[in-house]
Design the sequence.
C-alpha cells in the first residue's frame, strides 16, 4: 500500500480559507441566485479575514511543507498579507461599481477568491509545478474577470487579449520548467538551488530565459508588456486595479523565489539580463505614458514603470533587496488601487471619467476629491512625504548597497519623466478650467471606506514607515 | 519639545487647523494665517534670543527616532549659517500673508499651502539628517507648484510645470547622491546613517567626492540658480502671485547657497576645491549676463527676476572663494537679497493690483501721483543696487573683497555687476516714476494703503538696519562659516592660496 503524503493543514490554512469561501459563495449564488450581493461580499470579506488570521497565526513558523512544495517563510507570509489586503480592497471598491454598471453577478466573488487563492499559493510555491498550477489558477479567474462586462466590447477585447497572451506566457513558463527538469532532474526550488550551478550551461541558460519571459509577462516588464495597456483599459476598473496590484505582487514574489533561491547560484548570469529588462521597463513605461490621454492606459504604463522599480530590488539580489521589493509591492498595491478607485468614484452611475479632458477643473468643483487623487498621484510619482517615496528610497538604498548605483541613476531619471505624466493629471484637475456641464461624482459608502484606507496607508507609511520597513526586513528571508 | 520643533511645525499645524474653517469666511482665514505666521516669527525670534553667538557648532539640537532601518532620525538644530535664514523665512511669511490679503480665488487653500510651505522651508534649514532634509526639500515643491500654477498669471501652468520638473531633476540626482553618501560612510561609521554631524566627519575619497559633489551640485545650482541652469527662474518668478515671488526670491533661492555651505563644501572639500574655477566662472557669467538681460526687459517683474540671477551670482562667488570675507559676504548677501528683492516683488505686486500691467512702458510719472510709494521703491531699489548705507552694499562689498584676495580679475568682473545693477535699476526707476504722466490711468494711482505700509515698513526698516549696523548679523554667522572654511581649505597648501592672489590677477 502506498502511504498517503502528510498534509500540513495549518500551513495551507490561508489558501483553504479562501478556497472554502470561494466554494461557499459559488454555492450560495447557484442555489439562491437572487440573494443580495451584500451577503456574497460579506462572505468574501469573511474568508479574507479568516485567511489573514491564519496567516498571522503562522508568523513564527518557518518551514517547507507538503513534500517540499509549499514554503512558509517571511516572503510568503508578507506576500500573502499584500494579496489578502488587495483582495479586501478590491471587494470594497467594486461593490457599488458593479451594481452601477449592471454587471453585479454572483460569480464575481468566487472568482476573486479563487484568484486570490492562486496568488497566495504562488507566493508560497516552492516547487516549479506548483508555481505553474497557482499561476494558472489565478490567470484563469482573471481571464473571466477581465471580460466580466459581457456586453462591453472593450471588456471582451481585454479578456481575449489577456487570454491569448497569458496562454503564450504560460507556455513559455511551462517550457522553461520542462527545461529545468530536463537538465537538473528536479522541479523543487530548494533542490534546484543545489544543483543549478552544476547543470550544463546552455540548457540551464535556455531554461532561465524561458522562465524570465514567463514571469516578465505576468509582471508586465518590457519587452513583455504589450498586453498591459489594452487589457487594463478594457477590463472593469475594479478588476484592473486588482490585476495591477495583485498579479504584479504575486508574480514578483514567485520571480524572487525562483531567481533568488532556485537560481541563486547563477546570480551572475541572470543579473545582467534583468538589469537590461529593468532599465527598458522603467524607460519605456515612463516615456510612453507621457502621450497617454486615457487614464486607465496611463496607469497601465505607470504600472509597467513601477515593475521596473521592483526589479531594482530583485537585481540587488540581497536580503535588503528582497525586503525592499516586498515593501514596494505593498505600497504600490495601496496607491494604485487608490488611483483606480478614484477613477471609479469620478462619475455617478458607473460611468467613469476615462479621458484626461474629463478631469479638467475637478479641483475647483470637488476639491476634496481632487486632493485625494493628487495624493495618490504624488505617491505614484514618489514625492515625499508619501509611501511611494519611501518605497523608492528603500529600493534605491538596497541597490546602492549592492553596488548597483548605475541602476539607481536610471531609476532617478525615469522618475522625473514619470513625474511629468502624473503631473499632467494634476494640472488638468487643478490648473485647467472646468468643462461645462459637470456630471458630478459617484462615491458610495464601501468605495469611500476603501479610499480612506488607501489614503491613510499612503500618507501614514510616507510619514512614519518604520514599523512596516522592519516587518519587510524581517520578512525578506527565504526558507529552503 | 524644544523651540526648534515649535518653530518648524507651528505653521503646518496652523494649516491643518485651517481645514476646518468654512470656505467663505475669508476674513477669518486671513487673520488666522497672519496670526500663525506671526506666531512662527515669535518662535524664530526666541531661537535668535537663545542662540549663542560664540558657538560654531549646532545649537538647540533635538533628536528623536524616525526610521531606524534607514539610519535616519528626526534631528534638528541651528547654526550660524541657518540662523538668519530661519529668521528671514519667518520674517517674510507674515508679509506674504499681508501681500495676499486680496486673494479672492480660494483663499483657504492659498493660506494653507503658504503655511505648509513655511514648514517645508524651515525644515530644510533646520534638518540635521540628510533624509529628513530631502523630505523637506521635495515637500517644498508641491505647495510652491500650486501657488504658481493656481494663483499665477497668464502662463502660470507652463511656469509651474517647468519649475517642478527642473527642481525635481536636481532633487532626485541629489537623492542618489545622499544614498551614496550614506552607503560610502557606513563602513567608516559602523552602520548606515544619515546624521549630518557624523557624515561630516567622514573623509570620502576624492574620486567619489567628485561624483557626489556633482549630484548635490545639480540640486543646488538649479535652485540658486546658477547660469546656465537658471531658465526656470524668470518664468516662475514672473508668473507667480506676489506672495509666491516673495518666497521664491526671498527664501527658496537661498536654499541653493545654503546647500553649498551646509553640504557641498564640508562634505566634499576636495571636489569643491577642484570645482572652484568652473563654479566661479559660471557665477561670474551669471552676474554679468543677468545684469545685461535685466537692462533689456520690458516687464518690471521679469527685470527683478533676472536681477536675482545676477545677485545670487555674488553669493556663489563669495562662497567659492573660500575666504572668510567671501563666505560672510555671500551669506549676508543671501539675507539682504531676500529682504530687498522680496520688497521689490511686493512693490511690483502692489503696482499690478492698481494698474493690472507690469510693462515698464505703461508707466511714467508715478512719482507725482504716488509719492510715498515712489519713495519706498527708491529706497528698496537703491538697496538692491548696493548703495552704501543700505544692506545690499555690505554683502556685495565683502564678496568682492573676498574675491579680490583670491584673484583680482574675479573681483573686477564681479564689480561690473554692481555697476550694471545701478544702470538697469535706476533706468527702470526713471521710466516708471519720472517724466510726465503719459497714460491717463497713471494720474489716479492710489498711494500706499495702511495694510501695504504695515507689510513694507518692516522690510525697509531691516534694509536700513542691516546697512548701517551689520555686526549682529555677521558676528553670529562667522564662527560657523569659519568652521566650513577650515574644513574646505585644511588640506590645501597655504602657499597655493597666497600664489593665487597676486599671481593670475596681476
Sequence:
Amino acid at each position: 500500500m502506498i502511504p498517503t503524503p502528510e498534509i500540513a493543514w495549518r500551513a495551507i490554512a490561508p489558501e483553504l480559507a479562501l478556497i472554502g469561501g470561494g466554494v461557499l459563495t459559488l454555492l450560495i449564488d447557484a442555489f439562491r441566485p437572487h440573494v443580495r450581493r451584500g451577503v456574497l461580499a460579506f462572505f468574501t470579506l469573511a474568508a479574507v479575514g479568516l485567511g489573514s488570521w491564519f496567516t498571522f497565526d503562522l508568523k513564527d513558523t518557518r518551514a517547507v511543507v507538503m513534500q517540499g512544495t509549499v514554503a512558509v517563510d517571511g516572503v510568503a507570509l508578507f506576500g500573502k498579507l499584500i494579496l489578502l489586503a488587495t483582495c479586501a480592497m478590491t471587494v470594497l471598491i467594486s461593490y457599488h461599481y458593479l451594481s452601477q454598471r449592471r454587471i453585479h453577478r454572483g460569480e464575481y466573488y468566487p472568482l476573486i477568491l479563487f484568484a486570490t487563492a492562486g496568488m497566495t499559493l504562488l507566493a508560497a510555491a516552492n516547487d516549479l509545478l506548483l508555481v505553474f498550477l497557482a499561476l494558472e489558477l489565478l490567470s484563469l479567474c482573471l481571464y473571466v474577470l477581465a471580460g466580466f462586462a459581457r456586453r462591453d466590447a472593450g471588456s471582451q477585447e481585454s479578456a481575449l487579449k489577456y487570454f491569448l497572451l497569458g496562454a503564450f506566457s504560460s507556455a513559455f513558463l511551462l517550457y522553461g520548467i520542462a527545461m529545468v527538469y530536463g537538465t537538473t532532474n528536479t522541479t523543487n526550488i530548494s533542490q534546484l538551488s543545489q544543483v543549478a550551478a552544476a547543470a550544463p550551461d546552455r540548457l540551464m541558460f535556455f531554461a532561465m530565459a524561458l522562465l524570465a519571459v514567463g514571469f516578465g509577462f505576468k509582471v508586465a516588464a518590457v519587452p513583455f508588456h504589450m498586453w498591459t495597456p489594452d487589457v487594463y483599459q478594457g477590463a472593469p476598473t475594479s478588476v484592473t486595479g486588482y490585476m495591477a496590484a495583485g498579479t504584479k505582487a504575486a508574480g514578483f514574489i514567485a520571480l524572487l523565489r525562483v531567481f533568488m533561491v532556485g537560481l541563486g547560484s547563477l546570480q551572475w548570469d541572470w543579473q545582467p539580463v534583468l538589469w537590461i529588462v529593468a532599465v527598458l521597463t522603467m524607460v519605456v513605461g515612463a516615456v510612453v505614458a507621457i502621450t497617454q490621454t486615457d487614464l486607465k492606459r496611463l496607469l497601465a504604463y505607470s504600472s509597467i514603470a513601477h515593475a521596473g522599480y521592483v526589479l531594482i530590488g530583485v537585481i540587488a539580489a540581497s536580503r535588503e533587496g528582497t525586503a525592499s521589493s516586498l515593501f514596494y509591492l505593498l505600497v504600490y498595491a495601496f496607491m494604485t488601487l487608490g488611483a483606480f478607485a478614484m477613477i471609479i468614484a469620478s462619475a455617478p452611475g458607473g460611468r467613469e471619467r476615462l479621458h484626461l479632458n474629463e478631469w479638467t477643473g475637478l479641483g475647483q468643483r470637488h476639491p476634496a476629491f481632487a486632493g485625494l487623487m493628487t495624493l495618490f498621484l504624488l505617491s505614484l510619482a514618489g514625492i515625499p512625504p508619501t509611501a511611494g517615496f519611501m518605497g523608492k528610497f528603500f529600493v534605491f538604498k538596497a541597490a546602492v548597497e549592492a553596488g548597483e548605483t548605475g541602476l539607481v541613476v536610471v531609476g532617478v531619471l525615469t522618475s522625473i519623466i514619470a513625474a511629468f505624466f502624473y503631473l499632467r493629471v494634476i494640472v488638468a484637475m487643478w490648473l485647467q478650467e472646468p468643462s461645462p456641464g459637470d456630471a458630478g461624482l459617484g462615491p458610495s459608502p464601501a468605495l469611500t471606506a476603501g479610499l480612506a484606507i488607501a489614503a491613510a496607508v499612503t500618507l501614514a507609511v510616507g510619514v512614519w514607515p518604520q514599523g512596516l520597513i522592519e516587518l519587510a526586513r524581517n520578512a525578506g528571508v527565504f526558507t529552503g | 519639545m524644544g523651540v526648534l520643533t515649535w518653530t518648524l511645525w507651528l505653521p503646518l499645524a496652523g494649516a491643518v487647523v485651517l481645514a476646518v474653517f468654512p470656505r467663505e469666511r475669508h476674513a477669518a482665514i486671513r487673520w488666522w494665517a497672519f496670526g500663525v505666521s506671526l506666531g512662527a516669527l515669535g518662535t524664530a525670534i526666541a531661537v535668535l534670543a537663545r542662540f549663542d553667538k560664540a558657538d560654531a557648532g549646532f545649537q538647540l539640537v533635538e533628536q528623536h527616532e524616525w526610521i531606524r532601518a534607514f539610519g535616519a532620525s528626526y534631528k534638528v538644530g541651528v547654526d550660524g549659517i541657518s540662523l538668519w535664514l530661519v529668521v528671514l523665512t519667518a520674517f517674510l511669511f507674515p508679509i506674504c500673508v499681508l501681500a495676499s490679503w486680496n486673494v479672492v480665488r480660494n483663499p483657504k487653500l492659498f493660506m494653507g499651502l503658504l503655511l505648509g510651505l513655511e514648514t517645508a522651508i524651515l525644515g530644510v534649514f533646520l534638518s540635521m539628517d540628510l533624509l529628513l532634509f530631502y523630505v523637506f526639500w521635495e515637500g517644498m515643491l508641491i505647495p510652491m507648484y500650486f501657488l504658481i500654477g493656481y494663483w499665477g498669471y497668464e502662463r502660470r501652468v507652463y511656469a509651474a510645470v517647468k519649475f517642478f520638473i527642473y527642481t525635481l531633476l536636481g532633487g532626485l540626482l541629489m537623492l542618489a547622491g545622499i544614498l551614496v553618501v550614506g552607503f560610502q560612510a557606513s563602513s567608516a561609521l559602523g552602520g548606515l546613517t544619515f546624521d549630518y554631524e557624523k557624515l561630516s566627519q567622514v573623509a570620502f575619497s576624492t574620486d567619489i567626492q567628485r561624483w557626489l559633489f556633482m549630484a548635490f551640485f545639480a540640486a543646488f545650482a538649479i535652485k540658486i540658480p546658477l547660469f546656465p541652469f537658471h531658465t526656470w527662474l524668470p518664468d516662475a518668478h514672473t508668473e507667480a502671485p506676489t506672495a509666491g515671488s516673495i518666497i521664491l526670491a526671498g527664501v527658496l533661492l537661498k536654499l541653493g547657497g545654503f546647500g553649498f555651505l551646509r553640504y557641498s563644501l564640508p562634505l566634499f572639500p576636495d571636489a569643491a576645491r577642484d570645482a572652484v574655477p568652473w563654479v566661479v566662472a559660471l557665477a561670474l557669467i551669471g552676474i554679468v549676463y543677468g545684469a545685461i538681460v535685466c537692462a533689456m526687459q520690458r516687464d518690471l517683474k521679469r527685470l527683478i527676476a533676472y536681477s536675482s540671477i545676477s545677485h545670487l551670482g555674488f553669493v556663489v562667488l563669495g562662497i567659492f572663494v573660500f575666504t572668510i570675507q567671501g563666505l560672510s559676504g555671500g551669506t549676508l548677501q543671501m539675507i539682504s537679497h531676500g529682504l530687498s528683492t522680496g520688497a521689490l516683488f511686493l512693490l511690483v505686486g502692489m503696482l499690478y493690483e492698481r494698474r493690472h500691467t507690469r510693462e515698464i512702458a505703461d508707466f511714467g510719472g508715478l512719482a507725482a501721483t504716488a509719492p510715498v510709494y515712489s519713495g519706498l521703491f527708491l529706497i528698496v531699489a537703491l538697496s538692491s543696487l548696493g548703495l552704501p548705507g543700505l544692506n545690499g552694499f555690505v554683502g556685495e562689498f565683502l564678496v568682492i573683497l573676498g574675491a579680490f584676495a583670491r584673484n583680482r580679475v574675479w573681483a573686477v568682473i564681479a564689480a561690473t555687476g554692481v555697476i550694471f545693477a545701478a544702470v538697469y535699476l535706476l533706468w527702470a526707476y526713471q521710466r516708471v516714476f519720472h517724466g510726465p504722466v503719459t497714460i491717463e490711468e497713471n494720474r489716479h494711482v492710489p498711494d500706499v494703503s495702511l495694510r501695504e505700509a504695515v507689510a513694507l515698513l518692516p522690510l525697509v526698516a531691516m534694509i536700513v538696519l542691516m546697512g548701517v549696523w551689520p555686526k549682529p548679523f555677521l558676528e553670529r554667522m562667522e564662527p560657523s562659516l569659519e568652521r566650513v572654511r577650515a574644513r574646505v581649505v585644511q588640506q590645501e597648501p597655504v602657499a597655493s592660496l597666497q600664489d593665487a592672489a597676486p599671481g593670475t590677477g596681476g
Notes: The first strand of chain A starts at residue 63 and ends at 65. Chain A touches chain B at residues 363-364, 367, 378, 383-385, 389, 393-394, 396-397, 400-401, 405, 408-409, 412-413, 415-416, 419-420, 423, 427, 430-432, 464-466, 469-470, 473 (CB under 8 Å). Chain A has a mean pLDDT of 91.
